[in-house]
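pipeline: protein-struct stage 2 | run 1193 | NOC2-like nucleolar associated transcriptional repressor
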Amino acid sequence: HNNKQKTKLEDLSVDEFMLSGFDSHEEDACEDEESTQQKGKMKKPAPQKTSDKKQGKASEHKDQLSALKSNDPDFYEFLQQNDQKLLNFDDSDSLEDEDEDEEERMYHRLPSQLEEADDDEEEEEESEKKDAKKSKEATKVTEAMIENWRAGLTKEPTAKLIRDITQAFKAAVATTKGDSEELCRYTISDSAVFNSLVLFCIKDMHAALSKMLKLKAPEQGQKKLILPSSSPRWQKNQIDIKMYVAGVVQLLSSLTQATVIAAVLRHANQMVPYYLCLPKQCRHLLKSLIKHWSTGEETVRVLAFLALNKICRHKQEIYLNSVLKQMYIAYVKNCKFTSPNTLPMINFMQRTLAEMYSLDTQVSYQHAFIYIRQLAIHLRNAINLKKKETYQSVYNWQYVHCLYLWCRVLSTIYPSEVLEPLLYPLCQVIIGCIKLVPISRYYPLRLHCVRAITLLSANTKTYVPALPFLLEILQREDFNKKPGRMSIKPINFAVILKLSKTNLQEKAYKDGLVEQLYDLILEYFHTQACSIGFPELALPTIVQLKAFLKECKVANYCKQMRQLLEKIQENCSYITGRRQKAAFGVADVTAVAAWEKQVAVEGTPLTKYYSQWKKLREKEIQLEISGKERMEDLNLPEIKRKKAEEKKANKKEFKGLFESDNILPCSYGDQKKPSSSKGKTPKKMLSTELKVVAEGDEDMVEDLELSDQD
């Protein structure tokens, strides 16, 4: 109607327009119709009609003015100059865009308060309906119901029965999430009922679903999984199964008790074939499994890994790449702090992640290449920039554990033509890491790197020169120098990367260092014990050890190193004797390999000694770990204090015999203070030591500056 009116107005001359008047019959009819439409749309009473009439008149007036512009331009120009307000109408009165006009009118004619009141009323009505629906439908789950369901499943699992159990399970999961708003057919208010229901589902649902879908039991030795989607009944029951498996994942994410999580994980492992048919639920499960694998208790971690491995083995092309990436990130995130408690978990993650990488060497190569390159870039930046921040990006636990992980991955997957090219760059990164800051405070980090090289060298049959980094410590360190202070407990080199200046003055530091050098030199020679070139390989070490024994005056250190020297020389003699009888030349690679294999089977003096030593060493480490608390209970400083008091008493007794105070204390060190102050010195020293420990990072900067000058 509006369009008709518009065209009609445009056809009229000015005189005709004036005669026709502002309110034609047609106009009224049009507006009545429009107002009724608005009334139907907006559900508003009479005032809307009058407002529409006003709007119509205003629009009509605007049309008149536009006609005036074409018919009487002089008068229009006069209006423009003198009465601008008359011409500039509000845009909402325009009829050019009908849809916009309607929207505007809807917006402007409705009072906002009334609109809000309406919404509130609707919300109230809706919530009332919801509550009524909930109170009507929500059935409280009881122990008796669970028993009936159990009996039903044993007899014949039907689709309806499975649906009921799934709905009840959904309600149980909703209680753990705190989703009281989620609509469920059942409610669970009792914790005993919750436990019974979850236990019932974990025990019986897998078998019941298999029975309902008529899935065949896998034959013995059959590796391929039978997917439930192959069942003709799958489509019909898919929604309920989907709801159930999603519930299992949600339950995993909300549980906190390790034993319960372990039980649910065992069930999730059984349900893996169902997850493989439902990609979205499978992705959620994988995310939850990776979280448990990297942060859970020991049993939980193992079960999570088994499920991860199972999924990735059966759907490699879909999940393996993303799972490996997420697992590596989780590993890096969770090896930031290392202590005697976390170390076994970090080792577990290393071994299992290496197992995952062995599933597909092509994918593993891409991951290993990227991450080893990333480590190399960090190292390059540290070498080039020589700043505290860049050194710290390399000299931290995450970096060291990543180096160790890649050594383990390459060791586990060996022999592999695909991954072999990564051996050399990885070794270069480790050696670069050792050489970055070669000072005594970072000896623990150096020992960790040598251990990683030894692992790589032993398992990949690759010669990597690690001994120089150990022998260098023997040369540099002055083992004859008396320690500045006695220590209460030994230093655990396995869980530290950096020593404080206080540590360097302790007796425990040198004791531990000699022990570590003994262990690592022996371990490295064990990896090469059956090599035909062993005597030549051992020669530099024999020379260095003999030089050390000449210089060192500490009986304990000499005893350990002499024993090590004897074992190396014994092995040299054995290999020399064996190879003198050999009838082949050095160039005959095949014959050399066969000879080495034969020697390895028979064993050498060093390999036999190493196997005995390893068992004893592991027992010793276990005792050290378990005995730490007991060692801390021993109040050794008090014993020392008693001795000091005795000497003080002696001094008083024989005071007249000595003219000088300096004679007596000289045997206890270079301190020339009277012994009366000696009893108090340990306390003073402890407070200063704490300051030194607190200022550890500053010390590192000083050391780094010195090393740069070198």
